[in-house]
Design goal:
Rossmann fold; 12-stranded mixed β-sheet; globular
Length: 305
């Protein structure tokens, strides 16, 4: 089934070239189907790149999904063309005024991990969005910094600064495999990480109402969810493309940072990146949309509370 996007969104051409089934919003409105309504709060600097990565995963599911792109109002990034933001993005207040509620919401990571939460320019707005989502979204997936911030806000789990950047592809172990979010996962699977901070895994494991679903001996917590399935926390970047870590590594070394390590378990014998996480990343998105959203959200989206 297709992912529904604005007909002029630049990501459309790239998705169609990859044989990802997309449908324009104009065509979708002519059908007698209620697609899942998914909000995507994009906090990454290069928003178009992140759009494409996440739309690729969403579009690889058997469900019809309509995506609304969201941005913060209190901070405007400088790495995405202003016309693109005006054409395709809403702020939370604009979404509220239009009567939006979402079956699901995705909150991305952001390059602010080394800052205290209160120092982040849009922290108060992020808190307001998280609170709004509790009553207007059935299930929310928080990614990387988004996950670290949400675990701190909802559960008081401390953010831990890492001695050096965690960058590479790490082996993870699936836990609690009866949970539908990890249904059909292999016992061990790969996933990329790219971050300067993490969370206190011991405290997370002791937190009531929080299910730990995947961990790594090297990278720590990867996947957790609230027992009621309304919040999902992904500390890695399963949405990353084959070359994303490579671009980050070259960017950091190009800036003259002497403490930049080569991403671990990422480059093959020939020195080229190896894509080894796409299948499980697609499965995670599919499981979330199917079991945590589609099969649980009310048909009348306005009754979400």
């Amino acid at each position: 089934m297709p992912v529904i996007i604005p007909s002029a969104l630049p990501a459309r051409e790239a998705l169609e070239k990859e044989n990802i089934f997309v449908m324009t919003d104009v065509r979708a409105r002519s059908q007698e189907i209620r697609p899942l309504s998914i909000g995507l709060l994009n906090l990454m600097p290069n928003k178009e790149e992140t759009e494409l990565q996440l739309l690729r995963l969403i579009g690889n599911t058997p469900l019809q999904v309509e995506v609304t792109l969201l941005q913060t109002a209190t901070y405007k990034g400088t790495h995405t063309d202003e016309e693109h933001l005006k054409s395709f993005y809403l702020t939370l207040d604009e979404a509220i005024r239009s009567g939006k509620k979402f079956d699901g919401l995705i909150v991305t990571g952001a390059p602010v991990e080394q800052m205290d939460f209160k120092e982040v320019k849009y922290w108060d707005e992020i808190v307001r969005i998280m609170e709004w989502a509790e009553h207007n979204v059935y299930s929310t997936m928080y990614i990387c910094w988004g996950a670290i911030a949400a675990m701190h806000y909802f559960y008081g789990i401390d953010k831990i600064a890492l001695d050096e950047k965690l960058s590479g592809v790490y082996r993870h172990r699936s836990l609690n495999r009866s949970n539908p979010l990890v249904r059909n996962f292999d016992e061990y699977f790969n996933a990329p990480h790219s971050r300067h901070s993490g969370v206190d895994l011991d405290k997370a494991q002791r937190t009531e109402g929080l299910d730990i679903l995947a961990v790594s001996d090297e990278a720590g917590l990867y996947l957790a969810a609230s027992s009621d399935h309304r919040r999902v926390f992904v500390l890695g970047h399963g949405e990353y493309d084959k070359f994303t870590l490579d671009k980050e590594y070259k960017r950091d070394t190009g800036l003259g940072r002497g403490d930049v390590d080569v991403p671990v378990n990422y480059y093959g014998a020939d020195g080229a990146p190896v894509l080894s996480w796409r299948a499980h990343s697609s499965l995670l998105m599919c499981n979330w949309l199917n079991y945590y959203v589609y099969q649980a959200t009310p048909y009348d989206i306005t009754t979400i509370s």
